[in-house]
Design brief:
Elements (H helix, E strand, L loop, with lengths): L1 H7 L12 H47 L3 H10 L4 H16 L3 H14 L6 H14 L3 H13 L7 H14 L3 H14 L6 H12 L74 H4 L3 H4 L1
Amino acid sequence: MSQDIQDSSTPLAEISQGPSAFEQFLDRNQKNLIILGILIALAAAGWVVYDGIQTGARESAGEDLNKADDLAALQSVIKTHQGTPAEGSAHVLLAERQWTEGQQDAAIETLRSFIDSEPSHPAVPNAKASLAAKYMTQGKSDEAKGIFGELAESDNADFLAPYALISLGDIALAAGDKEAAKNYYQQARNEHPSSPFANTASERTAIVDAAAPTEIDPPPAPEPDPAAPSATGAQPPFSITPVPNALEPAAPSSEAPASTEETPDDTGADAPAEPAAGSQEESPAEDAPPADEEQ
C-alpha cells in the first residue's frame, strides 16, 4: 500500500517554463516583421492613391465623353483618355458618327483598329457587334457572319449573344436557308429566354414557319355596258337646234294701197334688212296715197 502511494507521487510530465517556439520565432524575426508591416501599409496606401487617380481619370474621361458632340471632340477623348472605359465608348461613338455622315470606310477602320489594338478592353464586344452590323449593311455577309459567330460563342459577350444569333439567322434567311435561320432563332430564344431579344427571335421563327400565300390569277375585267352611264357620272351629250326668230306681219290696213307690193323673184335677191332696235316701223298704208286722189 505504501508502495502505491509512493509511486503516485511521481510527476507524470514536466512543464517547461522557457519561451515557446512561436515566441522564439518572433524574437528572431521581429525586425523583419516590422519591415514587412511597413511595406504592406505603404502598398495599401499606394493602391488607395492609384485607385483614386484612376477613379478621377475615369470620371474626367466620362465627363469629356458626355460633352463630345462632334468628330473632333470624340477624337480628342480617344487621344487624351487612353486606357479608360470612356476611350472604348468614344471609338464606338466615333464610328457611328462617321457612318452617319457618309464616311463608311472610315467608320469600319475606326472599329477595326480599336479591336486590334485593345482586344481586352470592355468595349470591344460592342465594337465587334457594330462592325458586324455595318458589314451586313454593305452586303459583306461572310465578314459579318464570322464576327457574329465569335460573339455568339464568347463568354465575355453573353449579353450580345442573342443579338448575334438573330443576326446569323437573318443572314441565313437572306441566303435562302430557312432551316438554318430557324435553328438560329430558336437557339436565341431557348438559350436566352430573359433577353429583350427573345420576343424578336419568336417573331422571326413565326415568319419562317408561315407558308407563302398561293398566287391565283385575277378575275377578268367585266365588259363595259354601252347603255350604262360613264364612270365619272357625266350625262350623255345632247344638242339644241336653234329656232329662227319669226317676225309677225303688221295688221293689214282697211284702205287698199295705191300700188301693188312687189313680189321677190326667184333669183335669190336679198330680203330687206330688219329695222334697227328702237326704230318705229312704218306701215305700208301710211305711205300709199288714198284711192280718191288717184282718180
